[in-house]
Amino acid sequence: MTAFTLDPRPASAGTAGATLEFRGLRRAFGATMALDGLNLTLNPGEMLALLGPSGCGKTTALRMVAGFETPDSGEVLLDGVDVTGTPAHRRDVGMVFQSYSLFPHLSVTDNVAFGMRMLGTPAARRRARAQELLELVGLPTQGGRYPRQLSGGQQQRVALARALALEPRVLLLDEPLSALDAKVRQSLREEIRRLQLELGITTLFVTHDQEEALSIADRVAVMRDGRLEQCATPEELYNSPATPFVAGFVGTMNRLPGRLSSDGALVDVLGLSRPVQGSLHGRDGTADVDVLVRPEALTVSAAPDGPAQLVAASFLGATTRLTLRLHGGREAVADVPTTHASTLPTGARIRLGLPERPVLIDQARNEETTA
Amino acid sequence: MTLTAPGAVVADAGAKTRRQEPQAPGRRAARPSAGWLGVIPLLAFAAVVLGLPVAAMAAGSITTTNDAGGTVFTDANFAATFDGPYLESLMGSIRLSALTAFVATMVSLPLAYAIVTSRFRGLREAVLSASGVIANFGGVPLAFAFVSTLGNAGVLTGFFGLADKGWSLYTFWGLAIVYLYFLVPLMVLTLTPALDGLKPQWREAAQNNRATGFQYWRHVAFPILFPTLLSGFVLLFGSAFSAYATAAAMVGSSIPLVTVKIASALTGDVLVGQSNIALALGMDMIIVAALVIGIQLVLQRRTSRWLS
Questions:
Q1: ipTM value of the model?
Q2: Across-strand partners of A40?
Q3: Over chain B (308 residues), what is each successive 10-residue block's mean pLDDT?
Q4: Structural domains in chain B?
Q5: Do A146 and B202 lie within an 8 Å CB cutoff?
Q6: What residues of B are in contact with residue A89 (Cβ under 8 Å)?
């Protein structure tokens, strides 16, 4: 019989979670390749967010860990053990579904205790354990209610308690916050992170919301068309995106017209020369490219001969987002301190500046132009 | 005086005086809703087509005509229905209806589940359309269809040599098969929307909580479906219990059924002057139906607290 002890421990301990590994996972649905050779490892006690647009394969990957999908090829390993062929009901993973998926005919307590009931845990023990978990998720007095009598946020807390009830080695969260309103989403997000850190459980969090992913995950894996684009810490992902897709998907990114030098080492943008991030091998001849720049990386100053024109300003509190029109009709946005923005009237000519550091470029523009 | 609202009595217009009872502090006077007026046509219709016949039947069931031609109250009609061939017919109908309703419920559940989970949308639509037609296929045409296929000289009876194997359509079990022919599709139609409402995520959530396929059905799917199954069972029971034409055309009075017995008593096929007993039998049917519905309501209330 399974012994249940709720043992909150600091994340630094990190011993409760398992290592979860995706090894060359492939899965096609008809002509659509949902997963195309996914390789990824979650460290014990780590929270990793799978981020990407709809249809990128992130949910398919998560469902393979749960045992609800079978890969065409590749393996899912839990602490080094291949569980690819293990039936869903024998996997040691807990899952929270997007739509809560609480059993409507069971009380909150019975929902939380469901897994224990399936394992034959004595009623008194499972009730005590369910109460313990309900207290952990902040619903100590709701045990006798039915799911339909709870709010969406409360239901998802119950689902979380249910998923943790059997002390799984891995916790799977399938867009658990997407059905909730903004305020509840934020508080529950923090709650989930707190619990994850307390329990030190390895967690795979699937979301299409970049803010959600960046704010609670230790690492974020960005997926596109079944492939992993980049897996890095939120800071690294934001500041040093590996690909133009990641740069565009995570945060706001300006695409400024630039001209690449013949050796591919420098790019001219906004009348400035900047080194190119990464290496461009085998290049011969200059090319028009897009230079990818974050709004907060742009500096602005009023200048009668400036190449841009201020067309709109949106107040965001401490900063103001300026919308600027460049030569050729392209637009760019710049986030500047509000105190500075207030000195710039709409319609003013603006000079733009860039920090002295390598910039990411997207050559697709050039390829499209020359195609 | 004119009553205008609870707690407020307004004097006749000519009296020029007005008296109003004081309201309890913090309590608003309840205003009568005019919404119920909308159901008056329905209530009137029900009173005419349901209330009046039941009242006439009730009156007839507790009266009889004496030698002088007068009408007198009696309990003899009801007493007769609980004795001899009348009781046998009542019990026969209950037995046949309960059995066919139960079997149809059990058969329809996997059938409807197969339809709901089928990948072939065309199959689903075809089966549901066919069910809609077959569920309403009854009476003499249904009897004739079975007589011509599975009767003593039926096509299939001859083809498979069923008569040599002891088969006879004109028995209790033969009649049960005919009833199942329209009860199963009726239950499939009833169950399909309920099965559609079973979320696939519930199964996944159950699996994720270590439930096997059997445990999922035992602890999740079946309890959720139970109120619908119960309602469906009552619907089938009522449908079978009240069926007359098919049984009358197929087996006549050889199988004791209350509806056939009522017809015989009313028409005086066996004995004249039994019409009041027929009315008492009709009241027995109402009581049986009410009991079944009452049991269903109690069970449903117990098993579907989560719905309220």
A1: 0.81
A2: A22
A3: 34 40 52 83 95 94 86 91 92 96 96 91 91 91 94 93 92 95 95 92 96 96 91 93 93 91 83 84 94 88 71
A4: 33-74 (no CATH), 84-303 (1.10.3720.10)
A5: no
A6: 206-208, 210-212
